[in-house]
Structures are given as C-alpha cells and as structure tokens.
Hints:
about 160 residues, alpha/beta, 5 strands, 5 helices, Alpha/beta knot
Amino acid sequence: MKIHLVAIGEKMPAWVVAGFEEYARRLPRECSLVLRELPLATRGKTGDPLKWKREEAELIRAALPKGAYLVALDVLGKAWDTPELSRRMGAWMQEHSDVVLLVGGPDGLDDTLLSEAHARWSLSPLTFPHPLVRVLLAEQIYRAWSLLNNHPYHRA
C-alpha cells in the first residue's frame, strides 16, 4: 500500500522536510508514505475563499491516484486515537493499494472534496500550522504502523 499525503502549500522550511522525511523513511516499502505538494490558489487582499478552495480542489483531484481511498483532514472530522488509526491502517493495507490523506490550504478543503472523501479525520480541535501537520501526520502513520507490527517504537 502507498499512502499519499496530498497537501496544498509548497516550499516548506527545512525542519518540516527533515521531519517528514525522517518518519517516511522509517516505513517499509509495503506501507510507504509519499508527499505531493500542490500550489496555493493565488490570493489577494480581497477575494473569495470559496473560489480559492474550488481551484485547490481541482489541483487535488488531478493529483489523486485512480480508485484511491480518500481521507480528508478536517477539524469537523472524527478524532482517532493511535489504536484506532492502527486498526484503520491494517484495514487499508488489506483493502487498498492507494490511500490519500488530503490536507487543504489555509481555508480548508472544498465541500465537494469533503463529501467525496471516504473518511474525515480530525487531528485535534486545535488549529495547527500546515507545516507542522505534515510532520505530525508522518509520525502518526509511522506510530500506527509500529503498533500494527508490534514494533517497540509505540509504547502505550
């Protein structure tokens, strides 16, 4: 299985790239994690956030592997603890060759993408900076894999 992190926003600070790559590198080939960065819609001082989200949704759709299982990161989604994420990953590995984690831009994901997603996951009711979310997601994917495989990294 390949987990695709499709995220709006490019040119992240070096610490973000290093943090993401550290955890992605630890995962085995049969559960790889890859990042696909997409550009933000052009924003001005005045504008329409709905229009920007629609533009970003088009870019996201073009980047999706055909037939992928879609998980939208959404503050209104369901919160999963680590054991739940690990159970879901186990099911994904059995049922899907591609899983996509969708991270929108500063205005979030377009409603049409949210409705097309197979699951909506909330990392927290807190608001995190988008660069940090990438590192957090990579670490949690690695942690869930380690729990699934009885690896000593996860100690509950």
